[in-house]
Structures are given as structure tokens and as C-alpha cells.
Design goal:
The complex is a heterodimer of chains A (about 400) and B (about 270).
Chain A: H1 9-21, H2 30-37, H3 40-49, H4 56-62, H5 78-81, H6 105-113, H7 129-133, H8 150-158, H9 165-168, H10 170-176, H11 186-190, H12 207-215, H13 219-227, H14 229-237, H15 245-249, H16 260-274, H17 277-283, H18 289-295, H19 297-308, H20 319-323, H21 336-350, H22 374-411
Helix pairs in contact in A: 12-13, 13-14, 16-19, 18-19
Chain B: E1 7-9, H1 13-37, H2 42-51, H3 54-85, H4 96-109, H5 124-148, H6 150-153, H7 160-190, H8 196-199, E2 201-203, H9 204-210, H10 212-220, H11 231-256
Helix pairs in contact in B: 1-2, 1-3, 1-7, 3-5, 3-11, 5-7, 9-10
The chains are: A mainly alpha (about 400), B mainly alpha (about 270).
Chain lengths: ~400, ~270
């Protein structure tokens, strides 16, 4: 697009003038415009001369300064975009229709196919060029003062799109606070001129494409995901249930996964789907994985720990310590012996002295029954009978005793 | 027969202190144990928040559990001295008479019997509670030790034992807590407001109603003096005590050999 400039006669003329004269350039005929638009006072005077009643706000907006150093449009005259400006007072439609297309034809073509196109098919874009790039003072994106510099992108998009979480997410903070211009801004994931709604197939953030979009920066992680049971199902048949990157990490308010908070909340994250009867029934998976986890020592601790100190590091196993995360596999894809072997390795990471017999101290998410973990089952049955039996006897005895004492008190 | 307001000594300092320690341990263990059993509930999280985190809850639970275990060992030693060496009577031992008393009391309450049973130093209700307490404490201490050192125990037993111990620990806890709430509260707080376990003394009238046989013996001055010390009895007692203490120490030493592993956990858990 840059090269297009040189096809524009106005640009060439301005550039030529600059080259010859070496003075700061704005086209000579802009001087006439700035006579009225140079300051607030001038705008107000001109308006009163024409009997126009303008609000203070409007006056403010009508003040234009000569192009500053670094403006990408230095040398483009006011009249290039506002051809009817020589009529005074200015006509209502003095802005040239699609003024940018003269130089930025390709960009406009992309926008015409994007989510920001005119819904009626005309040239009234949902988001005209200046919604993002500003009308005046357009600068190259490498310039931090540019509206489209990484640090400023979010503020432009957020003007219309209510996704403020981005600013507190790990990417937003990296861009805004840490000054990491390479961290993801809105356009890194959604694209720019060719932006499409997530529901459209070709969108960078359509379910199928998300891992590739994140993978631009998080390459190995995205690849591991695509090989996992979740990613493979998405690739193979557009599975609507498996999570993509953003289902666990959140699209906009992405939490740093190395934060203790993420780890502590992770069982709930997995539980969103794995405790959901509707989803799990399709795949014949148990929905008791979450409740059995919480009932076990690790889960109990995690659950209570989260209640009191949600942002402190937790040293208890969470789902992904055993199952993995990006590379999570189906338990059906490995043999029992292999699983036991891996589980033992995993247990020994914390319980150094653990042996194979330690493994059955975890039911593997099974609910004890007469056939699976019978010892636990029968202990539970024992207490389920003994507790009501004993307490029931106590209560009946007490009731009888109260009756008896009442009678003896009355008779004495 | 007895002067109004006459107080009769029922418990000595030993009983009072034992009961107080048990009381503090029991309530503390219930308060710190129940939230762990019902971790998903809001009230459980509330208790944990008030105490200041699950680690502190567990720390208190372990300290009180240890104290209760020590009390159990102490009780065995105490019993050995009093009954083996000093040859004191063992009024806590349940007898066939207690079953008869229970039946008679029920019949009396139902109006099928004219007189309530005449009971000795300990009524059947007290004996039942004592036995339940001792039995319950043994179960809780043993299962608690399994839960505290699961890796060590699995070198002797399959891992399932750990989870069975957990089920038993939780079940026994509920049983004990509910028993205290019903049986104990009824007999010492509702039926009579009985403070003898704290003051050591019980009103003569109440004594006459609940322990007429013992009171009669007291009035007759028939309490037997402790038997004179005999060298062989003291010897047996010392051996018994030594075995008990050394056994406990060795058990704990063996169990604690497995603790170090926990420390090495990598919090981030990267894979």
C-alpha cells in the first residue's frame, strides 16, 4: 500500500516540493483552510460570521493543525479529501466519498469483505477507516503516537467493542504495562482489514482456527494441543464440545497460567465440561470426576485452600498434574499397565517413597462399589447403618425417658 | 436422710483434668475435622476462613489429635496403675446387670415397672458412653495415623486401606459427634444439669437418685483402701508401661521416616 502513494499526483507533488524547498510541508492551498480552522477562536469567528451556532465541542473538533512531523499523510492537501471545501459555507457532504480508496484500494477491498463492511452492501462501512486510524494525524504503526500502534490498538477497538477484560488479561497487561509491543493486541488475533466475526468459517478466531492463531506466538503449545484428545477431535470432525485455547484460558481476560490463581481454579475449569451430564453422556465419560476429586485428599485441600487463599501457590495435585494439559490424552488410548506406570511416576514426584501399592490409595475417580474398591464400600455401608442405628436408638431411648420422667414427676 | 444442699465428692482432680483435656480435644477436632469432610459446603469454607486457611485447620487438627492419642496411652497407663497395682475396683466394666438395668429403666419409663433400677457408681448410660469413647478414640487415632502417613502404611497394606481408613475416620467422627449431641447432652445437660465433672461434687439428692448403691456404700463407710504395693505387680506394670511407651515411640519414628518427600513438590507442576 505504501508504494501506492507514489501513484498519487498530490503526494508526488508534495514530496517533490519538500525535496526542492526543504521546508516543512503542507500544501500551499491548506493555508486558506487554516485561516478558519487554525484555532478555536478562528473557528468561532468564522461561524459567527456565517450565523452558524456551533457547540463548544463541535468548535473543538473543527480545529485542525498543520500536519505534524511523522504524519503519514504529510503532503496530502485538505482538498484532496474534502474536494467541495472551496464552497463557503461548506456543504454538508463535503467529504469525498471513500476518500482513502484513492491510495488504499487493497485495504478497502479487504474491509469490504470483512465484518466491518456495509451490511447493505454499499460504501457506508460499519467502521470507516477513521474509526480506527483517525481522520487526521494518521501515522505509521511503528510510531507510538499512531492510533494503530500496539499500545493504542485496544483503546480504538474498545471504543465500540465491550471487551475491557483484555486490559487486565496477560496480553493486555504485557502491551500496556510491560511495553511488550510483540504481545497480542486485538488485531494480532482478529486480523485488521480482513477481520471476520468468530462465527464465520474463515475467521481467525473461529473454533477451528483458534489454535493456529494462538500458535503464531505459542507454536509448540498449539501443536501439542492439536495432537491432544481435544485438539484432534476438533481437527477431525469440528467437534463442538472440545475446548479450544480460549475455553480454558479465556479469549480476552487471559489469565497467566503460571499464576497460582490459575492452578487453583483449574479443577473448576475442567469441571465445566467434565461435570456436565449433557456433554459427557455423548462420550460415555463419567461426570463424577470432579466430585471424586474434591472428595479425595488433594481435591479437598484445593477446594478449602481456594476458599481462604485463592492467590497463594498450592502444592496439591490438580487435574492437569496427572492428565497433562495441552497434550491431554484419553485414558482409553493407553493400556492399564501403562497408566499405572505413569501414575506411579507422577505420584513419586511428590510422594518420593511411594510404591505400586500406594496407587490404590486413589480410586482413579471410581466411586467405591462392591466390585470396585469393596473395602471402602463396606466401611461406608457399615457406618451408613451404624450411625442411624445408634443415634436412632439413643433418640428413642431419650424420648421414652422423657415420657417416664414426666409421669413420675406428676405422680410424686 | 441427707442435709439439703449436701455435696458429695464424686470425682477427683485426675478425672476433672482428664475430662477437660478430652473436652477441648474433642470440640477442637470436630471443629477442624468436619470442614475437611464436607469441603464442598459453604459453611465448611466459612470455618476454614475464620480459622485462617486449611493448613492451619490441619495443624490444629494434628496437634489436638496427637494430644488425644497421648491421652489414650496415658489412660492405659493410668488404668494399669490403679487396677493392676493398687487393685482398685473397676466400676466402669459393663456387666450383665447393666443390661438388666437398661431394660428395667425402659420398662419403668413405659410404666411397666414400679421402681427404677438402683445403680452403682456408674449407670449403664455412663458405661456405654465410656466404652464408646475409648473404642472411638482407638479407631480415630489408628485411622488418623494412617491418613497422616499414607505412603508409609502402603508399604505394609494395599492403598485401599488408606481410603478405607478415611471412610472409617469420617464415619466414626460423625457417630461420635452425634452421640455427644444426643446421649451425652441429654444425660448431663438436659436430664440433670450435672456439673460434677467440673466441680468434682454432686448433690446428695441427685446422688441418691442416680447412684443409690454407691451412696449407700459410702454412707456405710465401706470404701476399700488401695491394696499395698507388691513388687511383682509394680514390675509387671513397669514392663507393660515400657512396652506401651516404646511401642508408641517406635511407631511414630517409623511413620515419620516418610515425611520428607512432600517438601520437594514443584508448585508450578510443569509437564
Amino acid at each position: 500500500m505504501k508504494s501506492k502513494r507514489f501513484l498519487n499526483p498530490a503526494y508526488c507533488l508534495a514530496a517533490l516540493t519538500l525535496a526542492i524547498s526543504g521546508i516543512p510541508v503542507w500544501a500551499a492551498d491548506d493555508r486558506a483552510c487554516l485561516e478558519c480552522h487554525g484555532s478555536k477562536q478562528q473557528v468561532a469567528d468564522a461561524a459567527s460570521a456565517m450565523d452558524l451556532k456551533l457547540t463548544a465541542e463541535r468548535i473543538e473538533r473543527l480545529v485542525k493543525h498543520p500536519a505534524e512531523q511523522g504524519d503519514a499523510h504529510t503532503g496530502i492537501a485538505c482538498a484532496d479529501c474534502h474536494p467541495k471545501a472551496n464552497e463557503i459555507p461548506h456543504p454538508a457532504d463535503m467529504l469525498k466519498e471513500s476518500p482513502c480508496v484513492t491510495c488504499h484500494e487493497d485495504a478497502l477491498k479487504q474491509v469490504d469483505q470483512s465484518a466491518h463492511r456495509d451490511p447493505k452492501g454499499g460504501s457506508q462501512l460499519r467502521a470507516p477507516c477513521w474509526a480506527c486510524h483517525r481522520a487526521h494525524d494518521v501515522r505509521p504503526i511503528k510510531d507510538p503516537a499512531s492510533a494503530m500502534a500496539p499500545v493504542n490498538v485496544a483503546s480504538r477497538c474498545l471504543a465500540c467493542h465491550a471487551k475491557k477484560e483484555y486490559l487486565v488479561g496477560v496480553h493486555g497487561q504485557a502491551v500496556q504495562l510491560a511495553g511488550l509491543d510483540v504481545a497480542a493486541t486485538c488485531v494480532s488475533c482478529h486480523g485488521s482489514h480482513d477481520i471476520l466475526a468468530p462465527s464465520e468459517k474463515g475467521s481467525r478466531v473461529a473454533r477451528r482456527n483458534i489454535s493456529f492463531t494462538c500458535g503464531k506466538c505459542h507454536g509448540r503449545v498449539a501443536e501439542a494441543y492439536r495432537k491432544s484428545v481435544h485438539g484432534a477431535a476438533l481437527t477431525a470432525n469440528d467437534n463442538p464440545d472440545v475446548p479450544t485455547c480460549v475455553d480454558c484460558h479465556e479469549a480476552h481476560g487471559t489469565l497467566d497460567p503460571l499464576l497460582p490463581k490459575f492452578r487453583l481454579a483449574s479443577p473448576k475449569t475442567c469441571g465445566r465440561c467434565h461435570a456436565n451430564e449433557k456433554i459427557m453422556a455423548k462420550y460415555g465419560l463419567s461426570t463424577q470426576v470432579y466430585s471424586t476429586y474434591v472428595a479425595d485428599f488433594h481435591g479437598t485441600t484445593a477446594e478449602l485452600f481456594r476458599a481462604a487463599s485463592p492467590d497463594q501457590p498450592l502444592n496439591q495435585a490438580v487435574c492437569y498434574d496427572c492428565h497433562g494439559y495441552h497434550d491431554v490424552e484419553s485414558v482409553r488410548s493407553s493400556g492399564d499397565a501403562q497408566i499405572q506406570q505413569r501414575l506411579l511416576t507422577r505420584c513419586q514426584a511428590c510422594h518420593k517413597a511411594a510404591t505400586a501399592s500406594f496407587l490404590s490409595a486413589w480410586t482413579g475417580h471410581y466411586v467405591p462399589s462392591p466390585t470396585k474398591f469393596p473395602m471402602i464400600y463396606w466401611v461406608r455401608v457399615f457406618y451408613r447403618m451404624v450411625i442411624p442405628g445408634t443415634i436412632g436408638f439413643f433418640l428413642v431411648y431419650i424420648a421414652v425417658d422423657i415420657i417416664g420422667r414426666r409421669r413420675t414427676r406428676r405422680s410424686s | 436422710m441427707s442435709a439439703v444442699g449436701e455435696q458429695i465428692r464424686r470425682f477427683g482432680r485426675r478425672h476433672i483434668v482428664n475430662h477437660l483435656v478430652m473436652l477441648v480435644c474433642f470440640l477442637g477436632l470436630v471443629l477442624t475435622g468436619l470442614p475437611q469432610k464436607y469441603a464442598g459446603e459453604m459453611w465448611a469454607k466459612g470455618i476454614v476462613l475464620v480459622i485462617g486457611g486449611v493448613e492451619r485447620v490441619r495443624f490444629i487438627h494434628h496437634i489436638l489429635g496427637t494430644l488425644m492419642a497421648l491421652q489414650l496411652v496415658w489412660h492405659a497407663i493410668e488404668a494399669g496403675w490403679l487396677h493392676l497395682v493398687r487393685r482398685n475396683a473397676m466400676p466402669m466394666v459393663p456387666l450383665l446387670d447393666d443390661v438388666k438395668n437398661l431394660m428395667q429403666q425402659i420398662k419403668f419409663n413405659l410404666g411397666l415397672e414400679k421402681r427404677p433400677p438402683r445403680m452403682d457408681r456408674y449407670t449403664f448410660a455412663e458405661k456405654l458412653e465410656y466404652l464408646a469413647l475409648v473404642w472411638g478414640t482407638v479407631v480415630m487415632v489408628l485411622t488418623g495415623l494412617v491418613l497422616l502417613y499414607p505412603v508409609r502404611w502402603t508399604s505394609l497394606f494395599p492403598g485401599e486401606v488408606v481410603l478405607a481408613a478415611k471412610a472409617a475416620h469420617g464415619g466414626e467422627a460423625i457417630l461420635a459427634f452425634l452421640s455427644i449431641l444426643t446421649w451425652h447432652f441429654y444425660f448431663v445437660h438436659v436430664r440433670h444439669w450435672n456439673t460434677s465433672m467440673f466441680t468434682g461434687k454432686l448433690g446428695a439428692e441427685e446422688y441418691a437418685e442416680e447412684h443409690p448403691l454407691e451412696l449407700a456404700r459410702l454412707r456405710r463407710g465401706e470404701e476399700t483402701a488401695p491394696a499395698p504395693l507388691r513388687a511383682w505387680r509394680v514390675g509387671v506394670f513397669l514392663v507393660f508401661t515400657l512396652i506401651l511407651v516404646l511401642g508408641s515411640v517406635f511407631l511414630v519414628a517409623w511413620l515419620r521416616g516418610s515425611v520428607a518427600g512432600i517438601e520437594a513438590f514443584k508448585a508450578a507442576g510443569t509437564s
